[in-house]
TrEMBL record:
Gene Ontology molecular function: ubiquitin protein ligase activity; zinc ion binding
Taxonomic lineage from the root: Eukaryota, Metazoa, Echinodermata, Eleutherozoa, Asterozoa
GO biological process: proteasome-mediated ubiquitin-dependent protein catabolic process; protein polyubiquitination
Official protein name in the record: Uncharacterized protein LOC110989869
The organism's place on the tree of life at top rank: Eukaryota
Length: 351
């Protein structure tokens, strides 16, 4: 225990002080084997590790039914509350739902890749509108503090920004205009900082680019250690989460563009085959992972990359994930959208 380790350190300190006070070199040398042994033993002791999942435990006051009352233990659990969509090209159907975002309260936008469109649905799954693109959309993101704009990256060299009426407001390249024709890009991911700055992941050049939200002007080009197939920004620390999909690892990059931590998700103790969608909130980082069709998971990590929980299993093949305006977790799972909400139950814990 911690108290035992502390007691041992105090004894070692007292012993060290006694040795210093010894005037005779002979006495010091005679005590050396004992001191050396005790020091090595103390050095070999490790502090007890704390289970990070215990950070999720919280207590509410409860009635005392015995001499000691711990109240009611609050246990949080995510449950799928609805699923909508199926494979197809008709209204409400998807032909590869990849990116997902929440552009306005009560709405989600889904990049429907092979149907060449972005579909707008309510959080309850009701069909609202289609944005035809005539290109293959890869990802979407919302600029919630700039007129609820929707940002779309597709298989072209231009990022598209739509206004809250889902009309094209403007588009911009991720390189200087003079270099567009001679520069190969592959834009696959997009995320937005809290101040509205747009981040675009380019897996061809292994960079993300940063752009002004009002006109798309290029601000920075940041090299990344893995192809940025998926991006997310943590609004609370301004760190960027970069997912390389087939590299079985996710990088958390600090505000000064240096890799701060690496997350290597596992399923049953084995490295996952694919890491895909990522998102973040004040409770940590959420990552969609899969080993094969029908075995997709959603994992939750703290902001330092320590595993906390598996929120969902048995997904077809999850790609983009995002939080809705009412706190639900929306998952683009190939041909459908799955919605999860957090349930809290009270478990009486007394002794």
């Amino acid at each position: 225990t911690i108290s035992t380790l502390l007691q041992g350190k105090k004894c070692s300190l007292t012993e060290a002080k006694d040795v210093i006070d010894i005037s005779s070199e002979i006495e010091f040398l005679s005590l050396y084997p004992i001191i050396n042994k005790d020091s090595k033993l103390l050095k070999s002791q490790n502090s007890p590790k704390i289970d990070p999942k215990l950070s999720y435990l919280s207590f509410t006051p409860g009635q005392c039914i015995s001499t000691i009352s711990l109240g009611d233990l609050e246990v949080s659990q995510w449950k799928m509350c609805r699923e909508f969509g199926r494979r197809g090209s008709c209204q409400g159907e998807f032909e590869f739902a990849r990116g997902i975002a929440a552009p306005q309260p009560g709405e989600i936008a889904v990049a429907d890749v092979y149907n060449q469109r972005v579909m707008i649905r309510s959080n309850e799954g009701k069909y609202k509108k289609l944005i035809p693109l005539y290109s293959y959309p890869q990802d979407v993101a919302a600029i919630c503090n700039h007129d609820n704009q929707l940002v779309v990256v597709d298989d072209t060299k231009y990022v598209k920004v739509f206004d809250k009426k889902n009309k094209l407001a403007f588009q911009f390249p991720t390189v200087p205009q003079s270099e567009v024709d001679r520069t190969e890009v592959n834009l696959c991911s997009v995320a937005v900082r809290k101040d509205g700055t747009i981040l675009v992941g380019d897996v061809k050049r292994m960079v993300w680019t940063e752009h002004r939200p009002n006109d798309g002007q290029l601000l920075h080009t940041v090299p990344v250690p893995t192809p940025p197939w998926f991006l997310a920004v943590d609004d609370y620390t301004d760190r960027v989460i970069v997912n390389g999909v087939n590299e079985q690892r996710v990088y958390v990059v600090s505000a000064n563009d240096t890799a701060q931590s690496i997350i290597e998700p596992t399923i049953d103790g084995q490295s996952v085959q694919v890491c895909s969608g990522v998102c973040s909130d004040k409770s940590g980082i959420y990552i969609a992972v899969s080993n094969r069709l029908g075995y997709g998971h959603i994992h939750h990590y703290d902001l330092d990359g320590i595993f906390l929980a598996c929120l969902a299993q048995g997904l077809q093949f999850p790609y983009g994930i995002t939080f809705t305006s009412d706190g639900q977790l929306a998952v683009a799972d190939r041909f459908s959208i799955k919605m999860y909400h957090k349930m809290r139950r009270h478990q009486n814990d007394t002794e």
